[in-house]
Amino acid sequence: MTRDERPTRVLQSFPHKIGAARICQTAWYQAAGVAEAGADLLVMPGAVQQELPAGIEVRPTLARGRVRIPYKALGAMRAFKLHDRLVAAALPKLAHRIDIVHAWPLGALETLRTARRLGIPTVLERPNAHTRFAYEVVRDECERIDVELPVDHEHAFNEAILGREEAEYALADRLLCPSEFVVDTFLERGHAPEQLVRHIYGYDETQFRPPAEPRPDGDGLTAVFVGVAAVRKGLHFALEAWLRSPASENGTFLIAGEFLPDYEAKLAPLLAHPSVHALGHRNDVPELMRRSDVMVLPSIEEGFGLVCVEAMGSDCVPLVSDACTDVCVHERNSLVHHVGGVDALAGHFTALHRDRRLLARLREACRADAPQVTWTAAGARLLEVYDEVVDGARSASPVAA
Question: What does pTM read for this prediction?
Answer without folding.
Answer: 0.93
